[in-house]
DNA sequence: CGACTACTATGACGGCGGTCATAGTCGACG
DNA sequence: CGTCGACTATGACCGCCGTCATAGTAGTCG
């Protein structure tokens, strides 16, 4: 959240991600990024000779690393690690933000994908890598909980998909209900995978 | 898919949705929309005096109506209606497109949400209405299958979220696997709701 | 001190995109 | 025929945006 400290270069990447989050890539002008980062405009062409494309790609990469890093911190915060607990924390990050700061922003990787996936292949690849990193972190966490690697990967995909989609719905409706709904509905399915039981049932009534 | 027939006004709305699907709202220029629709540029300001905002909002509304309409057609195509069967058809529409035509486009409502949700409230409302219409159609279909209204609504939210998120991942990775994964993983959970059993288990092994 | 590199500062340029203004076509109706 | 309304056609305007060019500062090393 803090923009201060760390070099101006990193600040600009961070600010780019913040602005992309809100209005997509085209709404994140280079001048805006510099101003938001409190950095001189002239530094943009110095640090990012590849132009906006490079800046956007680095912002997407930063978001991927950030999301993956959060997974570890979520795990550490859980008293007893469970798939539903992890997913709940991942979702809670968004409900907290939306409740305290409003529904201004979405996922920067999602925005970059929607805006650039077709035209700018390097950005699409950056988004793919970011999702892959995030997915890998979640899948590894699930595997640590005793889920088989194949199902861990599949469930991680399901978690990411549901979260991204719920973020979208929540922003459109300006209501966190989609987020809470997917958390609640997915919880039993997620936890069922950790027992090593049938994929369907976990705890009988 | 057909651009021909129907008045030029409707064609332009349709074309706008098509272009928004690909590169977001900012990539859908007014001149591009007119050209893509084979309509005269001068007609834009005649049919859409509200400017681009109106055009985008109508495109989003069109997409919502289209998605809701598809639900009914999917139901009709199913030999025996089940929640997982419906979801499979909804997903299949996307896997079919991506396999035959490439990963060029996503959901226009999602793109409009990501691009305009914060700045243009009328567009955000249009997106919310579109999602609501789509959600209502899915929930009604589930209720017809014997799912209680509350769970039908919750599962519809889950289906929409997972589908939208999987579309995003699929476009980034240029691979339909996220789509097939969510279909497979969600199927037992969805069908479990139709039996009226416990929310967790349906068919014991 | 001089030179060199890293970084900053700012103005200009070219293109694009939404919108407006103005005029033109065409059919209907009286 | 005249007029009116619906629609089409085009060019111009203005602002924004990414990029480039050029120059300036500052710290460092020889």
TrEMBL record, chains A, B:
It holds the Pfam family TetR_N. Residues 87-184 form the Transcriptional regulator LmrA/YxaF-like C-terminal domain. Gene3D superfamilies: Tetracycline Repressor, domain 2. SUPFAM superfamilies: Homeodomain-like, Tetracyclin repressor-like, C-terminal domain. GO terms for molecular function: DNA binding. Residues 16-59 form the HTH tetR-type domain. Keywords: DNA-binding, Transcription, Transcription regulation. This is TetR family transcriptional regulator. It comes from Streptomyces griseorubiginosus.
């Amino acid at each position: 959240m803090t923009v201060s400290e760390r070099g101006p270069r990193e600040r600009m990447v961070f600010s780019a991600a913040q602005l992309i989050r809100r209005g997509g890539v085209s709404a994140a002008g280079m001048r805006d990024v510099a101003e938001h980062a409190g950095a001189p405009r002239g530094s943009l062409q110095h640090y990012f000779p590849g132009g906006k494309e490079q800046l956007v790609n680095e912002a997407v990469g930063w978001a991927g690393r950030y999301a993956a890093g959060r997974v570890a911190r979520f795990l550490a915060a859980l008293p007893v690690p469970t798939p539903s607990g992890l997913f709940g924390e991942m979702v809670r990050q968004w409900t907290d933000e939306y409740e305290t700061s409003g529904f201004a922003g979405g996922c920067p990787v999602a925005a970059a994908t929607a805006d650039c996936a077709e035209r700018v292949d390097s950005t699409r690849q950056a988004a793919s890598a970011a999702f892959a990193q995030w997915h890998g972190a979640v899948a590894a966490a699930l595997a640590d909980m005793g889920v088989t690697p194949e199902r861990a990967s599949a469930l991680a995909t399901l978690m990411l998909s549901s979260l991204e989609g719920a973020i979208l719905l929540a922003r459109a409706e300006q209501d966190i209900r989609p987020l809470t709904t997917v958390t609640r509905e997915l919880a039993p399915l997620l936890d069922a995978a950790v027992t090593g039981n049938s994929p369907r049932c976990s705890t009988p009534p």
